[in-house]
Amino acid sequence: MARIQVSHLTFAYEGSPDLIFDDASFQVDTDWKLGFIGRNGRGKTTLLRILAGVLPTNGAVSSPVPCDYFPFPVKDNQKTPLDIAADIDPEGQVWRFMKEIACLDVSDDILARPFATLSGGEQAKVLLAALFSRQNHFLLIDEPTNHLDMMGRRVVSRYLNGKKGFILVSHDRAFLDGCVDHVLSINRAGIEVQKGNFSTWEENKRRQDEFEINQNAKLKKEIASLKTAARQASAWADKVESSKMGASPSAHERPKNARSYMGEQSRRMQQRRKNLENRMEKNIEEKEGLLKNLELADDLKIFPLVHPAGRLIQCRDASIAYGDRTILAHLTFTLENGDILALVGKNGCGKSSVMKALAGEIAPAAGEIRSASGLILSVVPQQAHLSGSLRDYILQNGIDETQFKTILRKLNFSREQFEKPMEDFSAGQQKKVLLACSLCTRAHLYLWDEPLNYIDVLSRMQIERLIAQFRPTMILVEHDQTFLEHLNARVLRLD
Q: Which of 260, 310, 342, 418 has the largest count of CB atoms under 10 Å?
């Protein structure tokens, strides 16, 4: 069976003192369907680029087949999908590409259009079809779901389930469950490979964390008991030793061999103290070996404002247009205090435009969108293009620095990360900055446009718990089916 082997992998970006990987080793079979998960900033994209041969590294990486990286860089986006497929595989046959694209529910008319005119989801499907049409290649697929709507995710998940030989980075739990048979995870202590889908990995992780937490508590109690026993043994040994050195009792008060007797007692007490210390050191070593893979995901908090009005938004027969082009028509809904409303629909149906209209950035072309008087909003935009320092960002947004950084720490930011320019953050880390800013802003209504794009699974679960606990009034655009189900959100379809 052919395997990709990675041995003693060590990597750091030039000019950075931080190691992304330190003596990591693992192997995967080339016919596996691997889901690749890990916290933002752990090096998932870096590892894919190393496997693709784009980044040099210390260590050995061997693969019996060529590895292709998705998304494939398209140099001329005015070319058609057929031309791009030919660029990806100059020796490929058109019928193979056509066979692949037909499995992805893509209309035939896009094949003659410039690549630049396609939606993000259509572009992703074209590149996947072109890459999978190549024979005997292993695919490194980096977060394809960020450009796919909910239906598109189901189609691509079903498509990938019929393939083999790929590593897939995704944070969408339902998507992963539908198409992978192994999980590659970057944990705190290193890289691990497990058989099964995401749900299998999650259950195994939960059991392992639970075992380590219980074992850690048990060892802490044992160490405390051993410390107490060691102090007592030390006190007895010192007392016996001092009795040997102190005033000697009269002859009739002690046996003739009292000194040797006391010496033996002292020796035994010293040995007992030494044994206790050895046992304590061993238990401490065992304790230090635990919790290395325990992912800390402390609960987040939000303190929304409560508006005196019961109804915050009234939208009646609204239409949204850009120039002569109508994006969406006849939109009608209401939003009450405490509602969580999810806007769902295909890419390009106008979800982000609705969010801009609600935020007052654009006006409806017809109908009306009425907001309650004095309504305070907190907005997370879909795109994050952050640069500069965190300190400047804090000042610009007028938020509390301590609260802001506490939230980022809970979202797995290291303190060293605070000193880096934001343009060096991963896409997921930039999105976390936007979310942390929103959580620091007390508002009546939270407008979050695709807040989970690039956000790792554990952080998604933190955000789920936050919303479920505090129930802020919220309108969000999101394609993560599991996330919406867990929130029991009211769904407004814009199809």
A: 342
Q: Are residues 395 and 334 in the same domain?
A: yes
Contact assessment for residue 221 and residue 236, using Cβ atoms and an 8 Å cutoff: no
The set of residues, in sequence order, having a beta carbon less than 8 Å from that of 444 and lying 6+ positions away, is 304, 305, 306, 307, 312, 372, 375, 376, 377, 473
Q: The whole model's pTM is what? A: 0.80
Tokens of 34: 């691997």
Residue 168, domain member (yes or no): yes
Single out the residue in 147, 178, 197 at which a domain terminates.
197
Query: Of the candidates 174, 197, 220, which is a domain's last residue?
Result: 197
One domain for residues 173 and 240: no
Specify the 3-state DSSP secondary structure of 474: strand
Question: What is the CATH classification number for the domain harbouring 374?
Answer: 3.40.50.300
Cα–Cα distance list, 467 to 21, 239, 302, 420, 456 (Å):
34, 61, 8, 30, 17
**Which backbone phi and psi does 171 adopt, to 5 degrees?**
-110, 5
For 286-334, how does the pLDDT look when each residue is reduced to its tens digit (9 = 90+)? 555 555 656 666 889 999 999 999 999 999 999 999 888 898 999 999 9
E-state strands within 323-460: 325-336, 340-344, 366-371, 377-380, 445-449
> Which residue shows structure tokens 């396609």?
118
Whether 39 maps to a domain, the answer reads: yes
